[in-house]
Amino acid sequence: MTDVSHLSSAAALSARREMAMLPRLLKSGEEVLDVCHGSVDGRAAVVVVTDRRLVFIQRRRLWGADVESVPLSRVRSAEERIGVRQSTVVLHTAR
User: Which contiguous run of DSSP H or E holds residue 9?
Assistant: First the structure.
């Protein structure tokens, strides 16, 4: 199992279900570099940056989660837009 103990305690509190899924979603030897958590359309969402890919986890309305991943080789750019009350992360990927 992959060690995720170094991740933000804020992410562990606000996105408990998503963080609990993380060890099962990671591949053998995959290292987590950082986690970004927030909400999309009122549902909790987490973007996990590993040494190999980006993993997007968004909670479903009742149970479970939708999971998408993108290899780092397909990420073209990332930007953060900072507002007064919230920030937005925008990722651009190649198809």
Answer: helix 9-14
